[in-house]
Amino acid sequence: MKIVLSGIRSTGHLHLGNYFGALKNFTQLQHQAKCYFFIADLHSLTTHPKSEEFHSNVKIILSEYLACGLDPEKSSLYVQSSVPEVSELYVLLNMLSYKGELERTASFKDKVRLNPNNVNAGLLTYPVLMAADILVHRANWVPVGKDQEQHLEITRLLARRFNKLYDVDVFPEPEAYNFGNNLVKIPGLDGSGKMGKSEGNGIYLIDDQKTITKKVMRAVTDSGPTTPGSPMSPEITNLFTLLSVVSEPQVVSYFREQYDKCTIRYGDLKKQLAADICKHTLPIRARIEEIFNDNAYLKYVIEKGTSEARASAEATMKLVREAVGFKLF
Ligand code: TYM
Questions:
Q1: Which of 194, 270, 304, 318 is the catalytic position?
Q2: 76 within some domain
Q3: In the prediction, which pLDDT does 180 show?
Q4: Do 160 and 253 belong together in one domain?
Q5: Closest Cα to atom 22, ligand 1: which residue?
Q6: What pTM value is reported for the model?
Q7: Per residue in 1-26, pLDDT tens?
Q8: Which of 7, 132, 203, 258 could disulfide-link to 264, CB 3.0 to 4.6 Å?
Q9: Domain-located, residue 193
Q10: What is the tally of structural domains in the chain?
Q11: Same domain as 313, residue 285
Q12: Measured in whole angstroms, how far is the alpha carbon of residue 57 from the centre of its chain?
C-alpha cells in the first residue's frame, strides 16, 4: 500500500492555495492509501512566532484541516514537534546536505531577499527538515502545490544519497502527487504569481462571503482586450486560473469566449468568481468554529495521530540507526 504524507506550516490561516494545492488531493487520497498529515510547527520557528501564539496557531490549522474533511479515523494527524524521530532524522540528513545546494533553492533565495536580517541556519536547512518529515514515514506520495517541487527534488536526492552511502534500501524516492495532473499553483489576487500567507494576497477558508466578494472585486485587472487574439496579461490570466479551479468548465469557456470577442466585463467575471469560491469555502467555514471549540475532540485526534505517526517513524529510525552504525553497549 502506498504511503502518503503532507504538511502545512502553522503560520496564519489556510488559504485557497493550501486547499487546492494540497488539502483537496489529500482528502481524496486518504480513502486509498495510508496517510499521514502534520502541522509543521518546527518549520514555523524560522520566523520566530511569539510563544503565546505558538499553540493557538497549531490549533487553528488543526481545526481547519478537520473542517476540510481530513478524517482522523483514516489518516494520522499530528504536530511535527511531537514526533521527535523527525528531529533525529533531520540531524542525520544534515550531514548529507551541502551548503551550496541548499543556497541554490528558490525558496531560500526568496526568503533572503525578503528578510535579509533573518538568514538563520534553520532557513537554509528548511528543505532538509522537510525531507526528514517525508522520509521518516518512507512516504511514496506527497500531495503538494507546485511551489514545493524543488523541495521534493532535494528529498529524493537525500534519499538516494543515504541509501548509497550506507549501501541500503531504506528510503523510497517520493513523488509530488496530484492525481496524475500537473501540480497546482494558485495565483494571488494582486497579479502576483502565488497566493501566500506572507504575501497578504489570499482568500482564506475562514473568510465570510462579504470579505471574499470584496477581495475578489478588488483584484487587479487591466484595461481590457482591444484586439481579438491579443495575449492575455498576467493579472487576467490569474483570474482565469482561479476560475478554472473553482468554476464549472462551461463557465470558464463562456468568459474565455467573451474575452476572445473583446466583449468581456471584468465585473461580471469577478462576481461569478466570488460566488464560485464561496460555494467551496463557506461549508468549510461553517465547520471550522465548531471544531475549534471542541477541545476534547482535538485532543483525541492528536493523541491518536501522534501515536500512529510515532510508531511509523520509530520503525524507520530503527533501520536508519542500524544503517548508520549506532549500537547499544
Ligand atoms: P505551506 O505551509 O507554505 O503550504 C502548505 C501546502 O499548500 C501548498 N500551497 C500552494 N499550492 C498551490 N498554490 C499556492 N499558491 C500555494 N500556497 C501553498 C504548498 O505547496 C503546500 O503543499 N514546506 C511546506 C510545509 C511542509 C511540508 C513538509 C509539506 C513541511 N514539511 C513535508 C509536505 C511534506 C510549506 O511551507 O507549505
A1: 194
A2: yes
A3: 78
A4: no
A5: 144
A6: 0.96
A7: 999 999 999 998 999 999 999 999 99
A8: 258
A9: no
A10: 2
A11: no
A12: 16
